[in-house]
């Protein structure tokens, strides 16, 4: 394909695997921001003397911008391609991280107190913009690959890209122990800058968008891109994509399923688990970070085979089974207080979440083929906002029940997982039959 005459004639660059790898790198870097404070949650809780609810608010602050920016930026891909939205979001995340490093440098530890809470919330919100890259990379990846490779490509993108928070859940506590809090976050800032620079150098949009940029008319650009293997194309601009996807009822079903499997579920737990393991099971901050990292990395990687399973057996079937597995894991975390059973419950929950999320996104181009960007924006944005509810709710269980509240809070996931399993089964019965 690299020597296809259309590529040479129209001066087209890149190829699907490069598009996939650069999108994955951008997501890996940007999504680290969802654990902006989570990795050092216990440190911030103690230094600022925060209640459970206020800690939940601080941990969820990056998810505000992540949620609200996913909607317009995901849809914007249908108009300009993914490269520009990626770079803007990563740039905003760098500014937020730089602001936090500035506060830590001048105020931590001697003058680090509750008066800084509003500023920390602000920089957390700004830094979380990188988390919005998720809904940008979904359509960017979709437009690079043919229909029969969607589960694989999106599973790889989301699976490998989502390792970022897990890696940083482990690395940052280690760096805090070695270098101190300020230097650890400075190292994180340096990583964001380098990753963004690499993305800027190598990332290219799918051929259709390159052809439009080169002045080729829409229908001809579409024909050339189809010859090069592209199956999905945007039906209009940002607003048209949002409007068309919003008018499709299946979009809102996928919004809810994504909220529980990932946007409000998995991402909440990547930020919550360091504090859960540190405060409830009384392990060190480094060990708590390692356990949380295992959850995040495993739950992300399993999305890769989850995507392939969805291609093979259908997203509806895989989603129904996976949400059932989620309920089992959440039940174990709720009922058992022992370290071993809690760890096993966490891994079962992570299995269900990872595979369910891969299944949900296999259904996006299938259900909303003409507005993948808009649908990804709604799903990633509104679904991602679930974190703003779930994290404070988990904190409230601790405020009400004390120490045992860390375990009892997982009852929320039992109920929500059961509802999602029923919805997924209904999709299999009705939507799969064309009703």
TrEMBL record:
Chain segments annotated as coiled-coil in the UniProt record: none
Subcellular location, record wording: Membrane
Keyword field contains Membrane: yes
Protein keywords: Membrane, Nitrate assimilation, Transmembrane, Transmembrane helix
Start and end residues of each Major facilitator superfamily (MFS) profile domain: 18-435
Gene3D superfamilies per the UniProt record, alphabetical: MFS general substrate transporter like domains
KW Transmembrane helix (keyword) present: yes
One Gene Ontology term from the biological process aspect of the record: nitrate assimilation
GO molecular function, one term: nitrate transmembrane transporter activity
Membrane topology, record value: Multi-pass membrane protein
Pfam families linked to this entry: MFS_1
Family per similarity comment: Belongs to the major facilitator superfamily. Nitrate/nitrite porter (TC 2.A.1.8) family.
Protein name stated in the entry: MFS transporter, NNP family, nitrate/nitrite transporter
């Amino acid at each position: 394909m690299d020597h296809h005459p259309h590529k040479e004639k129209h001066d087209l660059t890149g190829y699907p695997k490069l598009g996939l790898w650069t999108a994955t790198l951008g997501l890996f870097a940007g999504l680290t921001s969802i654990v902006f404070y989570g990795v050092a949650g216990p440190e911030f809780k103690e230094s600022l003397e925060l209640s459970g609810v206020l800690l939940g608010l601080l941990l969820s602050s990056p998810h505000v911008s992540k949620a609200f920016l996913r909607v317009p930026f995901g849809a914007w891909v249908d108009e300009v391609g993914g490269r520009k939205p990626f770079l803007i979001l990563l740039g905003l995340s760098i500014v937020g991280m730089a602001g936090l490093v500035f506060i830590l440098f001048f105020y931590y530890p001697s003058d680090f107190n509750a008066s800084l809470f509003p500023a920390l919330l602000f920089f957390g919100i700004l830094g979380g913009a990188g988390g919005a890259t998720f809904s940008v990379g979904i359509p960017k990846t979709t437009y690079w690959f043919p229909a029969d490779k969607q589960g694989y490509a999106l599973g790889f993108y989301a699976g490998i890209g989502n390792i970022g928070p897990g890696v940083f859940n482990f690395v940052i506590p280690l760096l805090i122990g070695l270098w101190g809090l300020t230097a650890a976050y400075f190292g994180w800032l340096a990583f964001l800058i380098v990753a963004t620079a690499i993305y800027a150098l190598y990332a290219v949009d799918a051929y259709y968008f390159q052809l439009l940029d080169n002045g080729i008319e829409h229908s001809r650009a579409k024909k050339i891109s189809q010859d090069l293997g592209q199956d999905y194309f945007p039906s209009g601009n940002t607003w048209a994509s949002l409007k068309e996807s919003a008018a499709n009822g299946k979009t809102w079903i996928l919004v809810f399923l994504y909220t529980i499997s990932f946007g409000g579920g998995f991402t909440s737990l990547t930020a919550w688990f360091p504090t859960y393991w540190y405060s409830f099971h009384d392990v060190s901050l480094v060990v708590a970070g390692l356990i949380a990292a295992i959850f995040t990395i495993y739950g992300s990687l399993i999305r890769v085979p989850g995507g392939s399973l969805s291609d093979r057996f259908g997203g509806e079937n895989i989603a129904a089974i996976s949400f059932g597995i989620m309920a089992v894991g959440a039940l174990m975390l709720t009922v058992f207080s022992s370290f071993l059973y809690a760890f096993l419950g966490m891994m079962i929950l992570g299995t269900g979440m990872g595979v369910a999320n891969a299944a949900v996104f296999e259904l996006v181009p299938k259900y909303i083929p003409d507005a993948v960007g808009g649908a990804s924006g709604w799903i990633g944005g509104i679904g991602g906002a679930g974190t703003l509810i779930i994290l404070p709710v988990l904190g409230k269980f601790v405020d009400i029940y004390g120490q045992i509240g860390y375990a009892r809070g997982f009852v929320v996931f039992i109920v929500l997982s059961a509802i999602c399993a029923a919805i997924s089964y209904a999709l299999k019965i009705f939507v799969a039959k064309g009703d």
